[in-house]
Amino acid sequence: MSQSAVARALAFGPMPFAEPGVPRHYAPDRTVRIEHIDLRLSVDPVERTFSGTARLRVRPLASYEGRFAFDLDEVKLGTVTDGEGAPLEHRFGDGKLEILAPSAPSEVVVTWSGAEPQRGLYFTGPTEADPERQHMAWTQCQDEDGHFVFPCHDHPGVKHSWSLTLDAPVGYTVLCSGGRVSVEEADGRVVGRFEVAQPMPAYLVSFVAARLSEVRARDVGDVSIRYFVPEGQEEPIERTFGRTPDMIEHFSSVTGVPYPWPRYDQVVVHDFIFGAWRTSGARPWLRSCWSTTRRASTGRPTPWSPTSWPTNGSVIWSPARTGRRGGSTSPGRPTWRRCGGSTPSPLKRRRGTATRRPAAT
Question: What angle do CA 353, 312, 301 make, to 5 degrees?
Fold first, then answer.
């Protein structure tokens, strides 16, 4: 807390967190605690489908009375069993998977499938304006959208460790929050395994499956730095990300704290829905934000460039576009569009960012 904040607190007492008139919101009731989730997600970016298996290790709380629930919505439920494969009585609806058991099992295994969910997992691909654009799949689960992709207790205050596995067709790069354990090919699929040992909420789980080119930058001490961009879009890498090692060194020097994670990845995807967002894992941090393009008139980056955006973790970017609102193009003028019924702030317009949902194809 800053000295000025301390002074205000001493003079006026603690300030309310909520604005006047905002109703109170409480964390959901739970009768079990999730201790670990072993999650496997299989995606098909072309078909825009996914399927998953989750092994959830749970421990009953003192409030347990024969039933407990996970958050899960808008998927086709498969099987629900205990850790030994015995079926569990359950009910599924209204965004909840409720399990009925006189005593809570130590593990619950859930399988499910889905297609192009409205939230959490996003598929992008060719559009009318860009028919050659590649297919991708990526997640953005902030702040309670994880349960549209996998079963969990979808609340920012619920944290536990994770084992994460993502598989996609061969030729795709698979990335995830957490420390990478292995990446291998089997049966026409590329399979990436990752571990998050530190407690992490569901909304910070992040997956990317896309055809990406990888560029290694110089290491900063023991920290490896990598850039991932869509195949064929390698030319702007150095201009956009080239000062990342200098940035890490600078902020480590200013703060006196070395960068704490073993790697720093920056990943470019299409149509990311937020202007900026970050998700964390046990080792890397991931931040999601809009990238910038050169101004056509000057060849220089637009004002909101990574050289002025200090970060302390992995980054997901989305290529910015140029053009007037409404679709007509004009050199050097950023596009901004409406997202979720709200207009981007003037600050975002000045910085040339765009926030919108992926275009339907």
Answer: 35
